[in-house]
Amino acid sequence: MKIKVINPNTTASITQKIAEAAIAVANSGTEIIACNPDKGPVSIEGHYDEALSVVGILEEIKKGEAAGVDGYVIACFGDPGLLAARELAKGPVLGIAEAAMHAASLIATGFSIVTTLSRTRVIAQHLVANYGMTHFCRKIRAIDLPVLELEDENSNARKTILAECRQALIEDGAGAIVLGCGGMADLSAQLSQELGVPVIDGVSVAVKFVEALVSLGLNTSKKGDLAYPIAKPYTGMLYAFAFENRE
C-alpha cells in the first residue's frame, strides 16, 4: 500500500517531521511518501495562505495518481483543498483536522484544540461545524506563536503548548487534546504522557484511517459531487490542470 502524505507548505523540516510521525505508525507493508509542493507559502497561517497552497496540493495528488498511490493525507490542520483533492483522487483522501477530531470524539466526550495563531481559530471553528463536532469541541485555543517557531530548537514553543494543554484540561473540561498544526506532529506522545490524557496528532491518526479504508477496499465515491472533475480547458498558468475524461 502506498500512502502519500502531503505537507501543503514548502518548509522541508516540517515535511520531515510529518514523515517521521507517519512512518512511526504505518504498517510494515505501507510505503509512506512524504512530500511538499515546490511552490507556495513557507507556512500556512490564514485564508490567503490556504488558498495559495491548494494548487500545490492538487499537483501532488495528480502526481500520486500517475504513480499508483492508494490514499492520501493532507497534513495541514486547515484541511486545505480537501474536497477538490477528493475529486481528483481515486483512493481516500483525509485531512488531519478531520481525522483528529473524529478520533477524539471516539475516545472522549469532549476535546479542546490547541493551535498556533489566534487568527486561524476561525478556520478551525468552520471545520468543527462542518465535521459535526460542535457537540464535542470544548474550545479552540491558540498559543500565538508562528508555525515556523515550532522548528526553532531554542524556542519555548513546546513549553507554551504544554501550558495551554494544561489550561484546557482545567478550564474546558476536555478529556482529550487535539493538536491543531501539522508542525506539532512530534509532540503528541510526550504531551500525552505528561498530561495523562490522549493528545492526538492528526498525521498519525489520518495515516491509520487511510490504511483501514484502503484495506477495506473503500475508495472515494465517484457518484455525485466527488466525481472526477469535468473535462474542460484551463488557461494561463493552470493549463496543465485541465482534466481529461475518465471512463
From TrEMBL:
It catalyses: D-5-benzylhydantoin = L-5-benzylhydantoin; a D-5-monosubstituted hydantoin = a L-5-monosubstituted hydantoin. GO terms for molecular function: amino-acid racemase activity; hydantoin racemase activity. This is Hydantoin racemase. It is an enzyme of class 5 (isomerase). PANTHER family: PROTEIN DCG1. It comes from the Bacteria. Its EC number is 5.1.99.5. Belongs to the HyuE racemase family. Pfam families: Asp_Glu_race. InterPro entries: Asp/Glu/hydantoin_racemase (IPR015942), Asp/Glu_race (IPR001920), Hydantoin_racemase-like (IPR052186), Iso_Racemase_Enz_sf (IPR053714).
